[in-house]
Amino acid sequence: MLLMALDHIRDLMHIGSLSGDPTDLSATTPALFLTRWVTHLCAPTFVLLSGASAYLSLQKRGDIGAARRFLIGRGLWLVILEFTVVNFGIWFDVHFEVFLLQVIAAIGLGFVVLGALLTWNPKILGIIGVGIVALQHVFSSTTSHLFVPGLIPLGENHNLLVGYPPIPWIAILLVGFGCGRWFEHTRLDRRRLFAIVGLVCIGLFVVLRALNVYGDPAPWSIQQNGLFTCLSFINVTKYPPSLLFDLLMLGWMFLLLSLAECAGNRMTAVLEVYGRVPLFYYLWHWYLIHPLLFIVLFAQGFSPADFRFGFNFGRPEGTSGLELWAVYLLWLGVIAALYPVCRWYDQYKQRNRKQKWLSYL
Questions:
Q1: Is 267 helix (H, G, I), strand (E, B) or coil?
Q2: Closest CA to 24 of 39, 36, 9
Q3: What residues have CB less than 8 Å from 82, skipping those under 6 apart?
Q4: Residues 296/315, Cβ–Cβ less than 8 Å
Q5: Triad 51, 52, 54: Cα angle to 5°
Q6: What is the dihedral of CA 82, 83, 84, 90, to 10 degrees?
Q7: Superkingdom of the source (predicted)?
Q8: Residue 98 phi/psi, 5° resolution?
């Protein structure tokens, strides 16, 4: 959750975010590349754990009909949130010139599909998910926006930007649903299992990436020095998520889950506050960082007449924004400011467990 905020602050405010790709090795710096690369961990982790949570929720409810209604209702709610509250928080464009389909809608659509398939064996659904992930490199050659990103015109002044094509991300959610039973093991068994799965995923990534023939549309290559060659090796494709992207990022996720099983201190207690109210945190972080962008622009001498919306987030044409070190400072301030708000809402939810509407935020 915290890394996600770093990525969004960089996207909105970094001085070069509108003019280049931070993973373009011909134009980036190691610090900028790694700032972007480490946040690749966020989306596949959110999606896989959403699938695992759906499995655990089904086991807790013990009622497929009730679980189906919840998943479909929750999924449709997430899609509605994506194209209204979330999209406005991202663009701050009252005309809604760009509708962005990204991780929230992808999870929502995944819940709807999972709800429809809830009578299927979780292992079968997990295997189907693994199969789609493994064949993603084949599907990436299609022009369907179910598989690949793209821009769909919705009229003269409106567009749908498919940033997260549904099928590759639904596949990860199905994998998570199939893995859900792993979370029912004892803590020691979970720790061992997650470590093994994580190491296997990363091992497969290293082998396939070294072969450079399958698993990602962008092969690695020798660069001007050893550091940039290493960056090329780990520079995997997120849009759409390639097999190698999934192996690397989910491998790290499982290793982190293994480490988290034996963690318990003040730091983890703080982190758990954000994790217990993820959607609340997600919505509020957009509505904090985007006004901060306008404050930065005013401080740099721009006026509202200079603001350009649509794909620009309100950023003026030309040079605006912050250097990378300032992005990090602002990120630390944002997550610190959101902590007491998230803690208050977490405590409110715990005191009012019977209010069903709280499960939707």
A1: helix
A2: 36
A3: 100, 101, 102, 104, 105, 108
A4: no
A5: 65
A6: 70
A7: Bacteria
A8: -125, 120
Say how far apart CA 134 and CA 139 lie, in whole Å: 10
- Per the document, the length of the chain is 361
How many other β-carbons are positioned within 10 Å of the β-carbon of residue 167?
Answer: 20
What is the pTM (predicted TM-score) of this model? 0.94
Mean pLDDT of 62-88: 94
CB 134 within 8 A of CB 99: no
Closest CA to 126 of 48, 224, 22, 65: 48
* Nearest Cα residue to 179 out of 245, 246, 238: 246
Q: How far apart are CA 292 and CA 9, in angstroms?
A: 10
What pLDDT is stored for residue 319 in this prediction? 82
DSSP 218: S
Show the tokens assigned to 264: 């318990």
The distance between the two most distant Cα atoms of the chain, rounded to a whole number of Å, is: 60
- End-to-end, the C-alpha distance of the chain in Å comes to 15
Whose structure tokens read 């506050």? 273
pLDDT on residue 19: 82
Alpha carbons 179 and 171: distance in angstroms, whole number: 12
The verdict on residue 171 lying in a domain is yes
- At residue 159, the 3 state secondary structure works out as strand
pLDDT tens digits along 157-175: 899 999 999 999 999 999 9
User: CA distances (Å), 147 to each of 2, 137, 235, in order?
Assistant: 28, 10, 20
Helix, strand and coil percent figures for the chain, each rounded to 5: 70, 5, 30
Residue 206 lies in a domain: yes
Residue 178 falls within a domain, yes or no?
A: yes
Its domain, for residue 266, covers 2-270
Contacts of 107 (CB under 8 A, 6+ apart): 46, 47, 50, 75, 78, 169, 173
CB count within 10 Å of CB 52 equals 19
Average pLDDT for the chain? 93
Q: Is residue 299 part of a domain?
A: no
Distances (CA, A) of 214 to 207, 211, 242, 244: 10, 8, 10, 9
Domains contained in the chain, number:
1
